[in-house]
């Protein structure tokens, strides 16, 4: 933990010279720092609000706890790791399944346990070092897990998991929203291009409003909502079934947090590996905090890495501003009610792009780490795990139910380490093994 942070002024506080960066312990002038902080809030909006809208969690509560979680993360990491903690998409499928069985309380209980497990991993990593994480989850395993999550969510984009909140509900609105996201991405440059999801959602909402396709009950709630008030809180309940469904998400959170630390290190030129354990601990405790009050599980946000890359401002002061702003917005029921007016078709169009991006991100991990798919161990690890997740294989054992993400994650770990162990015992090398298909 650390005392309330102070920052040294970077240069004249007004600009960043070419080739220079504003380091985590520095800041620009406070007006400019506030501006960058608000940009971070805008950058996380689209993705952070999509998760509670899909899972049925209160959006204002999720925003409130994402802000608190960000501030907690900054404290735990000693103000050395710039990061915004937004809603993790990895929680969507298991949370929907857990809610089906035990309601929102059971889903929150699973989130709390997952956060506690991640925090425990953080303590171990802080004491023992981070190298064992790379050994347990090499890039082929990490990429497979991320890819299968995106593919597992594909049916949710179509029909909202049966909740009528996807493309199927309002196909024309969904297509127009998706087109707006695609066009915005290539028409604009820099920061606006990074807000393509948010701008697409706004466009879809406006089209729905003009054509009279907004939910009237939601609009009534918007008119009646107060400007200032506490968000809607929920308390967790704990069931073994919900915990089993949600707990595999920590593997994704480990990969996301580790990737965030390495990305910030590369952009700032600082070695931040020694802070890896604190990052896991910070995100884990933020997730516990969110799950304890009705918010979505959190993770470090890639969208905000984009803002840092565009501005070259890595000051944690900007993230204190962002976290505080999110907390204040969470205390505005009117704002939360506005988010609830987003139509089903808009969500369907946005999630079609978002879930596809998650799946492709898995492939990007393979490419950037030059995973060798001529090695049959890598090939089968990815192949089996992705299919198990995409098809949503389900295994029921008594009162417990294991879904595609759980089974796919287990398959990736078991196949990779099992085949590697057998190869070592046999005295063979990956290069000596023939590929099952010479064209692969």
TrEMBL record:
Keywords: Cell membrane, Membrane, Transmembrane, Transmembrane helix, Transport. Signal peptide: none annotated. The keyword Transmembrane applies. Pfam families: Xan_ur_permease. The keyword Signal does not apply. It is a multi-pass membrane protein. It comes from the Bacteria. GO terms for molecular function: xanthine transmembrane transporter activity. The chain crosses the membrane at residues 53-74, 81-98, 104-128, 140-158, 170-188, 195-214, 238-255, 317-340, 346-367, 379-396, 402-423. Belongs to the nucleobase:cation symporter-2 (NCS2) (TC 2.A.40) family. This is Uracil-xanthine permease. It comes from Micromonospora humi.
